[in-house]
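Hi L.,

You mentioned the student needs an example of a multi-chain input paired with its predicted structure. This one should do, with 774 residues in total across all chains.
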Amino acid sequence: MNLDFSDDQKFLQSEARKFLEKEGSINRSRKVLEEKHNTDQDLWNKIVELGWTGIRIPEEYDGLGLGYLELCVVAEELGRFLAPVPFSSSVYLFTEAIIKYANEDVKKEILPKLVSGEIVGTLAVTEDLFAPTISNIKTTSENNIVNGKKIAVADAEIATHSIVVSNSSSGICLRLVDHSSDTVSIEHQDTIDESRGHFSIEYKNSPSILIGDESNGWEFYENLLNQAAVLFSFEQIGGSQASLDMATSYAKERYAFGRQIGSFQAIKHKLADMYVAITLAKSNTYYAAWALSTESSDLSVASATARVSSTKAYQLCSKENIQTHGGNGFTWEYDCHLYYKRSKLLSVNIGSLPNWKEKLVSSLEKSNTY
Amino acid sequence: MDFNDTPEQAQFRNTCREWLEKNAEPKSNKKKEDFADIEFLDVAREWQKKKYDAGWAMLHWPKEYGGIAASPIERIIWAEEESKFNVPRGIFEIGLGMCGPVMMEYASDEQKERYLPAMAEGTEIWCQLFSEPSAGSDVAGLRSKAVQDGDNWIINGQKVWTSGAHFCDYGILVVRHDPNLEKHKGMTFFFVDMKSPGIEVKPIKQITGGSSFNEVYFTDVVIPDSQRLGAIGDGWKVAITTLMNERLAVGDANGADVKEAFNWAKKQDDSGESLINNRATRESIADWYCEANGLKNTKLRTMSALSKGETPGPEASITKIVSANKLQDIGNFGIDSLDMAGMLRTDDNEIQSFQNAWLGAPGLRIAGGTDEILKNIISERVLGLPQDKRSDKGMPFKDIPSGN
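Structure written out for the whole complex:
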């Protein structure tokens, strides 16, 4: 029985933590947000230098050839330190799509450049103010030419490429588009969390390469989300724990009515509830990490369970962190809002809580769990 | 990450399974027996004796008291395997889980030899006498008196919420020997023969209609000083040892869980409709599934630490809070699913399990530490928050306001 990371993985995690702390990742996130930089290019370059973008990329394509578990521990730290970089878009979604579904030529072309940082990717799905489904994708792809407009695409500006979920005559398919083409126009969109920029992307007769096959794109997309959900969950746990740590230390420092506010049960019970939520989420996410790393048939149930639990945990912890800080928590100056905003970014970025609950129950119905 | 036993653990699991297969029936959907049923007591004793003779009763105990000095992970492996068989449970847990460790730590060698094997074997059953009518969450507020009389102590007062007192042979007892001292300093700990003259046991009728708990009255009960556990005035320290074990023993709330709710929701009514198609139901199922599996996976993490010989983190402290509240919600869901007919008692096992969950869960949210006390414990012991201000700090016990 070993539902835990190995010593090597824990070492990688502690190195990641030291690095992000030393780099002042949280302050960098604030700066990106305040100055609308969309991303922190310098931090991203350093992350590329550390090799993290190639953790899962096989050695034959210049990657580190490690497994998902190594990615999980790094994800937890990126979440804890609110890293303002396109890691989730480029690594959990784009890179995985290439590794899993691209043909050998594309892999040879793209994967080494993802390692070196020459290529950064993102996934473009949403088109309107509602959830994308298999039946509402309007972006078209015929004869390798993509036309359409995507919105709310995270990290699109720093991304050199996108994978576009599009509709062809034979069904939904995934299309790789190079942003350097003048057929692609990217525009910043204002968001409620500017610590990682979101953009619209318009494709006007954009040349593209098919990733996977012409008709099973939606299934590939759902598989990618199931995998990415586990890694997002690790970021969410990291952020939840940081929020609880912040609330706990404030509850010990802050005095009211002649005593530490952490001695009031109203505060203690709030923080205990946060601890409970994090513990449930963490345990479910560890299990999902196992399912991901072993390609278990239980992955769709396990990843939805992790996703729902950690989204709930981060929402609870980040909002109650503000509440514990009282008026201070509502100021721009305190960091509480950085976590609150990031919790929302992470919770809608690959689909919102109600939709993941629905996914969990429909996966349960399809599985033979019960 | 993997879920495999080490070769040694696998071998141990095999030994457990082989013995269980020879001596017990695998679990079926047989109806559960009633806790208070006297016949059940005999069946439970017989099973306990069988286990004791083979070394399984208290496997982590040293050999001289009937154990096999098993490691924590081996205890868990045994419990996992035993839970797959249809064996009586619920009679010995308090004695073995809470009284046993206290006796092991504080009783004399002769007393250990005399009492521990009989406790493990099931010939003598033990109960715990802590709570009082005016000392619940604040159990240190207890008032039952102990007055020293030569080599004896004379006990007067009342205990409450004593599980199984009506069939127990011995009990552990904490009482106040000096009300002039501060609350936590004036207590002393004993074990007592439940057949002593002056002890009267009265069942408490619970909101479920059943009676698993009792009131226990003490009128001039004589306890020899040799049955004192710990020094005079150390009662609270000894009690804390027991309460810590209680919180480990009172863990998962048994009863209807997400699996039952899910399968129930999938059933069709006469018009072919299923609750599983209702969005609110689906959302609840998702929440309960996350909680149930969060607890299951938390247990696996605890086991992983034990398996590596590490001390587990405090994760397990969330178990009762989460499972008792989930039980209450699931019971509620099952009853509501029947709409107006939800009021009716029926022969249907599933409906009964929802109604029993709903009626029983309030007790589980209180027993072994209320939700509120457990949250205090998490916030103080795990998060390191300061204790709440106490109005009775430093006061002699007799001067503490009590409202009556």
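You could point out the following to them. Residues 121-216 of chain A form a domain with the Butyryl-CoA Dehydrogenase, subunit A; domain 2 fold (CATH 2.40.110.10). The first helix of chain A runs from residue 7 to 22.

Best wishes,
N.
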